[in-house]
Amino acid sequence: MSARPHRDDFDKYMVPCFSPAPFIPVKASGSQVWDQQGKTYIDLAGGIAVNALGHANPHLAEALKAQIDRLWHIGNGYTNEPVLQLAKTLVESTFADKVFFCNSGAEANEAALKLARKVAADRHGKGKSEIIAFQNAFHGRTLFTVTVGGQPKYSADYAPLPGDITHLPYNDLQAVSDHISERTCAVIVEPIIGEGGVRPADPAFLQGLRQLCDRYHATLIFDEVQTGAGRTGSLYAYQHYGVEPDILTSAKGLGGGFPIGAMLTRDAWAQAFQPGTHGTTFGGNPLAATVASSVLAQLDSALLEGVKARHSWIVARLAALTTQYGVFSDIRGAGLLIGAELAAPYRGKAKTLTNLAAEEGVIALIAGPDVLRFAPALNISYSDLETAFARLERAIVRFVG
């Protein structure tokens, strides 16, 4: 029998795109994770906002096991019952008329950007191709989406990059108003910038983008890969902003840990994609669709109210830690997507703090070098939160010295 895998095996066998933690998780339930040595962690990261209902959620597991005995994959020359049910639920729950399924947020954004350019070309000609995006945004790792994301550190190595993409300051409506023109085919925006520091959009900013896109016949795309599936206390963040996009992208929490992505759009946009114009091999497969439907079935009003209550609890605890230790300068976000920016003496050391937190038994995230990011399961218990923040406080005591 072969030896048990060790963390060193990552360095030996894996392409080094990542630098994983020194421990290897082997089992998880709810918001608790155990590593190979049996050490327990409280998960405040949620697989980067993916495990919306916790690890090994029994409802998701039961749904998946039932579907495994029926149909796994059939190919896009056919449809299947689970994907039709999922599409119906999403359409009836949102602004959208049609849905395209894929496997990830990057693929969903790729589809959205391609659709926006095709709609503009079909309606107005090839000259209407500019995409406006925002600095410090993140939209995926394909060549197109990583270029549209406003972080050159992720795209510069892959030049020449796709063209006709403009990056403007986030939350600066005047900058957009000064730049947008009849050449603009789309504006893509995260209602809350995630990877770039957990920065919520001002309501007036999103409202203004909607008005500008209407004026210049541009497609408004909301990237809700991280903010969707109940993460902010609404099914999608646009619903509490009161601004409807033309296209919305979803992934991460939609599958509760099973890979799925979705592009939601209005019928007038959807018709620009016809057989052969875009596609996917695995997108909309019965297994992923079944799990996603089970996720949505659990995102009822009580759970979403619980998200808002947990937000208040976490923000209050972070504020108390700030008062006692002076470690954070700003706490921001919505629902269970929360960013805590490090105070000036500790800037650039977010990773150091998350490493200390892991040593104490808490899994947390960063959002850039200066921000701790929290994206736990939407149903995390208060008991687990109490344990996690007691451990986080121990890490902070070590951090501030």
Automatic annotation (TrEMBL):
Keywords: Amino-acid biosynthesis, Aminotransferase, Arginine biosynthesis, Cytoplasm, Lysine biosynthesis, Pyridoxal phosphate, Transferase. Its EC number is 2.6.1.11, 2.6.1.17. It is found in: Cytoplasm. Binds 1 pyridoxal phosphate per subunit. PROSITE patterns: AA_TRANSFER_CLASS_3 (PS00600). GO terms for biological process: L-arginine biosynthetic process; lysine biosynthetic process via diaminopimelate. It catalyses: N-succinyl-(2S,6S)-2,6-diaminopimelate + 2-oxoglutarate = (S)-2-succinylamino-6-oxoheptanedioate + L-glutamate; N(2)-acetyl-L-ornithine + 2-oxoglutarate = N-acetyl-L-glutamate 5-semialdehyde + L-glutamate. CDD domains: OAT_like. GO terms for molecular function: identical protein binding; N2-acetyl-L-ornithine:2-oxoglutarate 5-aminotransferase activity; pyridoxal phosphate binding; succinyldiaminopimelate transaminase activity. InterPro entries: Ac/SucOrn_transaminase_bac (IPR017652), AcOrn/SuccOrn_fam (IPR004636), Aminotrans_3 (IPR005814), Aminotrans_3_PPA_site (IPR049704), Class-III_PLP-dep_AT (IPR050103), PyrdxlP-dep_Trfase (IPR015424), PyrdxlP-dep_Trfase_major (IPR015421), PyrdxlP-dep_Trfase_small (IPR015422). N(2)-acetyl-L-ornithine binds at residues 141, 280. Pyridoxal 5'-phosphate binds at residues 105-106, 138, 223-226, 281. Its cofactor is pyridoxal 5'-phosphate. SUPFAM superfamilies: PLP-dependent transferases (SSF53383). GO terms for cellular component: cytoplasm. The modification N6-(pyridoxal phosphate)lysine is found at residue 252. Pathway: Amino-acid biosynthesis; L-lysine biosynthesis via DAP pathway; LL-2,6-diaminopimelate from (S)-tetrahydrodipicolinate (succinylase route): step 2/3; Amino-acid biosynthesis; L-arginine biosynthesis; N(2)-acetyl-L-ornithine from L-glutamate: step 4/4. Belongs to the class-III pyridoxal-phosphate-dependent aminotransferase family. ArgD subfamily. Involved in both the arginine and lysine biosynthetic pathways. Homodimer. This is Acetylornithine/succinyldiaminopimelate aminotransferase. It comes from Pantoea latae. The lineage of its organism: Bacteria, Pseudomonadati, Pseudomonadota, Gammaproteobacteria, Enterobacterales.
